Structure formats: structure tokens, C-alpha cells
Amino acid sequence: MTKTARAYTNIALIKYWGKKDKQLKLPYTNSLSLTLDRFYTDTKSEITDSNQDEIHLNGKFLNDQQSMRIRNYLDVVRKNYNFSEHLSINSVNHVPTSAGFASSASGFAALAASINQTMNLNLDNKELSILARKGSGSATRSIYGGFVEWVSGDSNDTSFAVPIDEHPDIDLSLLSVVISQDTKKVSSTSGMESSVKTSPFYENWVTLVSSEINEIKQAIAKKDVEKIGELSEHNAMSMHALTLSASPSFTYFVPETLMVIQLVKELRAKGIFAYVTIDAGPNVKVICTKESTPVVQKYIKDNLPTVTTVVANIGNGIQYI
Ligand code: DP6
Q: What does the mean pLDDT of the chain come to?
């Protein structure tokens, strides 16, 4: 019987923001993430007699338009691995939009793992990571648990994730502060494309990331959580500087995003461990320790009662259940 593939979402501490090859999704820089335990996607696929793929998400059949990205992805996989069968895919997302995380990382990682199983492709984790990458860049890293680096590479076969420490014994938690559940106006795909093309700072970003990747790996090895927090916050702010300096300029921030950043700075001034990271959306993720999490959660809720918060811890790589 085919098993269900489960993949967890991840948060990039040193972010991927820009492709040098859009077709293959080859990034300009390496990136480094932490896999999280609370949010995941379960996917099961079966060969169907139908002459087209059938996609179900959370129990609902997706129409042609809704399933276009997934069907295009399946066409790429069929071509890559020389099979012609169509698939019936059943995917359940345990990444509620209300948790402020994008589901493409866990979604495409689970889909890749599920196809690997159903079509007996016998891919190892490196090959699986390459396959997930073709669905969404951030999915490349969701194959592994803990701290994961995506090595940019310069061809299809050299761009994949490597585990840095899959089960780190380190005191870090992530508090997701959900400001808005609206779908973003600028997708990450087009946001990064416009940053690459028009931000005068893009070259500096590439240089910055290569040194921050090295620094964060050293900090992870030493379990230096302060340094991990500092580097992550600086990297996120630098990524958002690319959107502000693009032409035309755009931003994912809303007023409350800046308010949460301010609150986190106030907490830090009081000696509480808290650093922010922000992806392509208005919601803020606060990097905390076990001890600081409830303090940060309460301070933010007291000052901004409209937001919701969710705590996540370090999660595992792909599982088959
Ligand atoms: C800000 O992986 O969603 O979350 O490859 O175009 O699907 P595509 O983009 P996606 O971009 C993620 C951007 C980010 C940073 C990161 O996860 O590294």
C-alpha cells in the first residue's frame, strides 16, 4: 500500500531571494533554514487511469485553474523521470493560513516524496531535494529536519539541500505573530524577480548572504543563539531592503509589522531574548528561547490585541506514514 508522505514547513534564517535560472529554480545564493514541528503537509498519490491528473487539497477537488501550478509540476516530473502515468493526488495541509506560514515549502516537499514512493523512483534525499526544488525553492530545504542549507549550485544536479544538524540540541523556539491572513499581493516569485532586476543593492545582497551563511553555520556549531538571532534579523531586514529599493518600490510590511519589530526591540532592551525574521508577507516570526517565548507572547498580545500568535519548535525531515 502506498504510504502518505509528510513534510514540515521551514523558516529561512538566511533567506533565498532571487533566481539565476527561473526554469530550474536555481538561486543566486545559498540559504539556511530551520524546519518547524507544528506545520506540515500530508500527501498521498496513486496512479489513475484518467488521461489527466486529479488534485485534491484538503478534501476538495481543485479545478484546472486552481491546480495549474501542481499539474505543470507533474508534467516536469514526468518528463524528468520518463513516465507517462497520470496521478490522483490527495494533499492535506496542516499549515493553516492563520498560522502565518506559506504552504509551498511543505506542499512541494511532500508531493515530491509522495511521487517518489508511488512511481518507485528510488530517489535518495539529495535527489528528492532537487525534485522538490522544481516545485518551489523553499521546498528544497523541507526534506530535512533541523538546520538545513540549500547549496545554490550552478546546474540542476548541483542545487540541493544538505542537513547541517537534523536534531540540534539548542534552545530555540519560533513565535509566529499573525497580523493578516490575506493572500499577498506580490508573490515571492515575482517579488524576488523584481528585486533582482531593479534593486541597485542586489549585488551587495549576494555578497552579504555568502558571509552571513558562514557566520550562522559557525554560530550553530557553537550553539550561540544570540548570534543566530542577530544574523537572522539582519538578513531578513536586508532582504526587505531589496523590495523597498526595487523600482517600482514595494513592501510586504503593513503598519503592524513595524509595530511588532518595535516591540521586539523594546523587549531586547530589557534583556529578553527576541529577534525577528519576516518572509514575503506582513507576518512576523519572533525567534525566542523556551524561557523568553511566553514573555514575548504576552508583551505582543498586551500591546497589539488584534494579532494571533502560534509557537513552533524544531521539526523533522520527510516521513512516510
Ligand atoms: C522569503 O520558495 O516561495 O520565504 O521558488 O518562487 O516558489 P519560489 O519561491 P518561494 O520563496 C521563498 C522566499 C522566502 C525566503 C526563503 O524561504 O528562503
A: 96
Nearest to residue 74, comparing CAs of 38, 106, 119, 13? 119
Q: Which of 188, 239, 253 to mutate to test the pocket of ligand 1 (most atoms within 8 A of CB)?
A: 188
Verdict on whether the full-model pTM lies above 0.85: yes
Choose one of 134, 138, 148 to mutate for the ligand 1 pocket test, by most ligand atoms within 8 angstroms of C-beta: 138
C-alpha cell of residue 146: 533541523
What pLDDT is attached to residue 98?
63
Average pLDDT over every residue of 82-98: 90
Q: What is the pLDDT of residue 102?
A: 77
User: Taking the domains of the chain in order of start, what are their residue ranges?
Assistant: 5-169, 173-312
Residue 1 banded pLDDT, cuts 50, 70, 90: confident
Q: What is the fold of 173-312?
A: Alpha-Beta Plaits (3.30.70)
What is the phi/psi pair of residue 315, to 5°? Answer: -115, 180
Helix or strand (DSSP H, E) at 70: helix 68-81
Q: Where does 5-169 sit in CATH, by number?
A: 3.30.230.10
Is the CB–ligand 1 distance for residue 133 below 6 Å? no
Residue of minimum CA distance from atom 1 in ligand 1: 279
pLDDT confidence of residue 95:
84
